[in-house]
Design goal:
This protein is α+β, with helices and mostly antiparallel strands. The protein is built from 13 helices and seven strands.
Length: 374
């Protein structure tokens, strides 16, 4: 009966309520510890329980189809995963964040896609050692955007035409001599070479860094002097992934929102000073056990360098919309007013409820299409 009750509560809420599964898990089970039994797997409620699970190198997200036709590292297992991970780690070690251009638009409205485009251009520069041409940008960027729109539930169906255009353009780029790509990389099949560039590098930089930079912008007025503490606290409250799922004889699911709040004092409060102490649960954000993200260092350092550039401009002000709610998934984008001079006291953006309904509808489509939770 407990299994039936908890499954109906969690899956029913996931299908009906306009919040992500990870956020719902925290709202429903914030007082729980250990494991909650669901139909086909357990819900892990805290980091202590997570860390006590048997060690495994199985994928934490085997069911996602958001990246089709590409094959991201995060979905692979066994030797395919090990060989791809080693090659990716070798590439990441050679990428240097020596210099990059960054500009934050002075505008009122959703800046998420402005940040995303900036990070695409930076990512392209880091991988190919030059800026994209106008034709390359037109062929590649829409596909990178489409992947994130599926992940963000802003659309319910992938645009395969623009994704295949992205695929074939990257195939042509890989014909150029590039010291980033070793003989081991060149020995991979075409789909694996393209997937490393598109998913493991370019899309990871765009999505993870865009999310983190926008979260940091929204919280910047509450920053303390230690920027690393501020970034850790941002990742605790707004982790870059909603849920992890692992298959097995008795599989499990875990909400990163719940894992990063369970066991903390004042768990919903943004308090960077809590990181000055060491008697707290670990931060769970960039992967788990053998599935730690190889691009953690690059993503963290790039996001930190960007927010440092923004904070150095003391003439800049950032005012979130009064009707904007800061959540992990940016269902409404990042609705802020950025400017200089006289700072406005308040403003609102239009189309909130229409956007929320569209995002809720697309989320339900994705739950069924990808069988994300069951």
């Amino acid at each position: 009966m407990r299994k039936l009750y908890y499954s109906a509560l969690f899956y029913g809420g996931t299908l009906l309520l306009p919040i992500s599964p990870g956020e719902l898990a925290w709202k429903l089970f914030s007082k729980k510890k250990g494991k909650i039994p669901l139909f086909h797997r357990d819900l892990i409620c805290d980091t202590e329980t997570l860390m006590s699970l048997p060690k495994s190198d199985r994928s934490l997200d085997e069911c996602t189809t958001a990246f089709s036709p590409f094959i991201p590292l995060l979905t692979l297992n066994d030797e395919a995963w090990k060989s791809r991970r080693k090659i990716l780690a070798d590439i990441l070690r050679t990428i240097k964040l020596d210099h990059f251009d960054w500009s934050l638009p002075l505008k009122k409205g959703d800046i998420y896609w402005d940040v995303y485009e900036n990070l695409f251009r930076i990512g392209f520069q880091l991988i190919f050692h030059r800026a994209p041409t106008s034709s390359e940008f037109a062929a590649i960027y829409p596909g990178i955007v489409d992947i994130n729109k599926i992940i963000k539930r802003q659309t319910g169906k992938a645009d395969m035409e623009c994704r295949w255009r992205l695929y074939h353009t990257v195939v042509e780029l890989l014909k150029d001599d590039n010291p980033l790509f070793s003989d081991e990389f060149r020995a991979l099949s075409e789909i694996n070479q393209v997937s490393i560039v598109v998913e493991d590098l370019l899309t990871s930089i765009c999505i993870q860094c865009s999310d983190l930079v926008c979260h940091l912008l929204l919280l910047s007025e509450s920053f303390t002097e230690n920027l690393d503490h501020c970034i850790n606290e941002t990742l605790r409250l707004y982790p870059l992934t909603d849920i992890w799922t692992r298959k097995g004889e008795r599989g499990w699911i875990a909400s990163l929102v719940q894992l990063n709040r369970s066991g903390w004092d004042n768990p919903n409060l943004f308090d960077p000073n809590r990181w000055e102490k060491h008697d707290h649960p670990p931060l769970i954000s960039w992967g788990f056990d053998a599935r730690g993200c190889p691009a953690t260092k690059l993503g963290y350092n790039l996001s930190k360098a960007i927010i440092e550039k923004i904070l150095q401009d003391k003439t800049l002000w950032i005012v979130p919309a009064a009707n904007f709610t800061h959540t992990r998934t940016f269902p409404l984008g990042c609705q802020v007013w950025i400017g200089r001079g006289e700072k406005p006291t308040s403003w609102t953006f239009a189309g909130k409820w229409r956007t929320l309904f569209k995002q809720w509808f697309n989320s339900r489509l994705r739950l069924f299409d990808q069988q994300e939770l069951w």
